[in-house]
Design goal:
This protein is an all-alpha fold. It contains 12 helices and no strands. The C terminus is likely disordered.
């Protein structure tokens, strides 16, 4: 304990976070391993050769490498470990953190900022656990509830649209804020879907990778165009100032250049006076 007190804030909480991350990973793997040992079976490794699984692994690999770097400044030390161990960052934790900082603004490098992020992630996690626990208990205690839900023709199709509704509700506000960034990839994906529909081709989750790549390309093009526009605008403003002959800008350098010349002219005068004084003494 004495050693822990001597550590600084970041080192101590990074150590605690890593310990809990390792403990959580071991706990996650213990469930399937225990089931495999108890039932004396093993996973179907041939499933991992499926194209959909490979695509999902590639997408998750990119998110695993990019999300810690992208979300670390936003979450802070404590909330980052808590968010990654509980999951649902892009669709739950990050929107909660963003909304919390919109309500209460704080400096990104301050302790208040990290406290707000930690409270928002912890609150989101607790509410999610409570909601899941309530619905699990309802489904477990209500006899035939699952069968009744599956039997209803107007409820069953909704389960196949959950992912699309989730991404639509979360991405809607970003589409409204950045239409130039979102509309071109959306149009391309819709056209591609229509064409592949007529060809009876179902790319499955490849759509997700295509959409991410299109968004990245559109973002790069937009950034390059904005930089060119800013450069052109600055050049036009500079030429306009030169054409108008702004006296403030033109006289300022002239005054600076003249000041040293005055000082250099005064120095020889002092030298002449100092040279004349000895001459008068000698005559006397």
């Amino acid at each position: 304990m004495a050693k822990m007190k001597t550590m600084d804030f970041n080192t101590r909480y990074h150590l605690i976070g890593r310990i809990w991350i390792i403990f959580g990973i071991c706990l996650f793997f213990s469930v399937p391993i225990t089931m495999c040992l108890y039932y004396q079976t093993e996973p179907n490794w041939a499933v991992f050769a499926d194209a959909g699984i490979i695509t999902l692994l590639i997408v998750n690999l990119g998110s695993c490498l990019g999300e810690p770097i992208l979300y670390a400044p936003m979450l802070g030390t404590n909330s980052e470990y808590l968010a990654f161990i509980t999951g649902n960052l892009s669709n739950l934790k990050i929107p909660c953190v963003v909304r919390a900082h919109e309500v209460y603004e704080a400096d990104r490098n301050s302790e208040e900022y990290e406290i707000i992020s930690t409270i928002s992630v912890a609150t989101s996690t607790l509410i999610t656990i409570v909601i899941i626990a309530v619905f699990v208990l309802v489904l477990a205690l209500a006899n035939g509830a699952i069968d009744a839900i599956r039997a209803n023709e107007w409820i069953t199709p909704a389960f196949s649209c959950v992912v699309y509704a989730l991404f639509g509700s979360l991405g809607g506000k970003y589409v409204v804020k950045n239409p130039k960034l979102a509309i071109p990839p959306l149009i391309i994906i819709v056209v591609l879907s229509i064409v592949l529909g007529f060809l009876h081709v179902s790319p499955g989750s490849v759509y997700l990778v295509i959409g991410i790549v299109l968004c990245l390309v559109t973002a790069i093009i937009q950034v390059v165009r904005e930089k060119k526009k800013q450069a052109i605008k600055k050049e036009e403003e500079r030429l306009a100032v030169i054409a108008n002959g702004n006296p403030e800008i033109e006289t300022a350098p002239a005054e600076d250049t003249e000041a040293p010349s005055d000082e250099t002219e005064e120095v020889p005068e002092k030298e002449e006076i100092s040279e004349e004084a000895p001459a008068e003494d000698t005559e006397a």
